[in-house]
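Researcher: Batch entry, complex prediction.
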Amino acid sequence: MGIRRIFFFACVVLLASILSGCWNYREIDQVNIVAGIAVDKDENSDGYELTAEIVEVSGGKDAKISSEIISVKGDTMFDAARNAIAISGKRLYWSHAKAIIISSEQAKEGIGKIIDWYNRDSETRADVNIIISRTKKAKDILDKAASIQEILSFEMEDMISNQASLSKAPSQEVWQFLNILEAEGVMPLIPVVDLRTINGKSNLDIDGGAVFRKDKLVGFIDGEDIKYVLFAMDRIKGGLLIENIEENGEESKVSLEIFESDTKVRPVKLAENKAAIKLEVEVVVAVGEIKGYADVINEEGRKKLRGITEASLKKNIETVIKKIQKEYKSDIFGFGEKIREKFPSAWEKMRKDWENSFGELEVQVSCKARIENSAMAARPVKAGG
Amino acid sequence: MFKRLNKKNAGKDRAVEKSGLTKSLDENVKLFQEVLKDDETLVIRRLNNKYLKSARFALIYFEGMIKPDIINENIIRPLIQQNLKEEILENNLVEELRQKIIAASDVFETRDIYQVCGALAYGDTVLIVDGFDSVLVINSKGWHTRGIEEPLSEKIVRGPREGFNESIMMNLSLIRRKIKNPGLKIQFREIGVQTRTKVCICYLEGTACEKIVEELRHRLDKIDIDGILDSGYIQELIRDEPFSPFDTIGITERPDIAAAKLLEGRIALLVDGSPFALTLPFLFIEYFQTNEDYYNNYFFGSVNRLLRVAAGLLSIAVPAIYVALVTFHQEMIPTPLLLSISAARQGVPFPTIVEALLMLTVFELLREAGTRIPTTVGQAVSIVGALVLGQAAVDARFVSAPIVIIAAFTGITALLSIKSQGAAIFFRLVFLFLGSMIGVFGIIFSFLGLIIHLMSLRSFGVPYMLNISSLKGQDVKDTAIRAPWWHMRLRPPLIAAKNMERQKKAN
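Model: Structure tokens for the complex:
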């Protein structure tokens, strides 16, 4: 490498660093890290009220992490986000945000226009959880809840991701929401957050789902029903099934832990513009608890328990599907999409009137359960004598 | 200017050469006194034989360089006491003395006073015989060298513990003891007008590539310098790619490593007065190889080598990656880590890049201080380094704790492959500057630059990154991993051009 080449190399480096346009340099302590936001309607205009939860780190040896809430108004989301600088002094830093809470009031008017900025901006991420607040104002969730961890938004994210072993709320991230919004024959289902007062303290409670038609909220499903919705959508990862079993006139409750679940959605063509759906649910469970003395572990008991489980699962799934068909007429299960995949020509005729025909759609549910084990005990507890 | 000086010196030496010996003992002695005047360690001992009165001798040697026992018992005693009259033909006295009288292992006759002066300075004794214009040079070396010790620069747990010392003959003996095949060629050369340092080319005939040996001879012949005090002089004078921070000639202080390289077809270059043998051609991967890899279980050896390779890369890239992530790509840091870094950075007055440069400089200072200062005050460095600069600086919020961790990590990984330190420091700075200016882009660019540079290097015609771009079994065997011995069947290509096979293929 001669002098000329060194000089050439230095020039390239220098020009590349000086003439490149967008310099993204920012020190880590010079930004306000946004943990989550709540979006409300601004009562006085058609804009928004944006409430951001900002991570407050006080440095040094005993670093303390807490959060601070700031509220700003703006005509658009972007406007509100920039207006926040006036209050916080530093620019908001969005890449680590974990939750967008949208008030149900706003959700009824549509959330697509809120999500657009979030999806479009380069600093925000599309893998953020959308949550609908049941309280009147989404701001209240961030404002009034007492947090167990330091930061409410992070807590909410944990709550949603741990739903895998609870199955009482769906999860929906921004990119998933947008995919569903743009797809045909499927509607969004978004988790719901509420405040629940325990011992005089308001706590976060993520339970149930919000049903949307396009991007507008049409109603809620509570947590227990969400489980069966998730069964129908093949999104069950865990959770419990509680079954009543009678033996010798004595009633026992058995908690079954869901290990695995596989749901096959099979569209069946009935006529040129009519289809039905066959749902085949296969679930692998384990006896996790026997509240009572029923022997569900011997062969006979197992058979009986299986029958009861299959029957109640079938009934519950059918009920929840019926309810959604009747009350909300919103195809959150994506049955329309399945029909479109299998019978595209029939779908062409059905798509226009899908919202109505979904209400009439015939859904046949069949369930198969397999009881894998009985956890760490091989037999039920027997009272002495 | 230096060149002119050298020429002047060379001229002077040629004058010495020309002033030849005569047949008169007194004149010859005078000649030596003239050539070596003002050197008060010069000893001239005149003697006569008991029986042959006409025979007069003079012994010349330097005090301190010889072993008196040899001179007393093996030269002076027989010269004085033996009956030369009966045993010796006078007309061929010098040859007769060499064959029958002098009881020393290495004696030769010469007329070349330049050669004689060199031998004298190396601890030989010169015997001048009256009436002859040639002298006998008798090996009586008695200067002291360090013993054979374990090398400090290349520590191992398992393997031979002997290391080279400053005597070239001793070093050769250490190599020879390991390779007994007569194919081991040892050729001397004298380099340095003033120091007249012995340099020795060692290679295995039939295994080493003849072209590389020839090229080495050619490059050694072109050296024109006043003195060689360590093999480092030669390493730099004959290397390829003089402007690269990477070495293209390897060094080792261990005879077993030198022998292993010879067996692979490489050439060893020993320099008198230096415990570091040069080995060439040198490949990039040799920075990460140690002799212990080959003595330990191959699995363990491979793990260690992978660690070394990873450490080598990390020591270059880690500070840059940290700075780039913290100042440009905060979204790539996991949230909890981001929050702790952010907490640690609160109240620190300097930008992250300044912090990084500061701490890396401090580390280099400590390293240099640690190697340079006497061991008795060594503890002070660690106390100052660890407590004052580390702990106190963080407590006082001059620097943030993460950067101290990064600097320490960089230091440790850099020390793991100590031979590549010079290149590592250079490229670490390049990475750091570009990384702090344009983020991960800069790191990618500097990494590309590093790869391009490495790929363009050659050592004695052999590509520096030989075998690294290939995935064939015999090529990968000794790079990032160390394959089991039964699998290492072939020598590296291009280095051992003629004779590739180390083990016959089992049938």
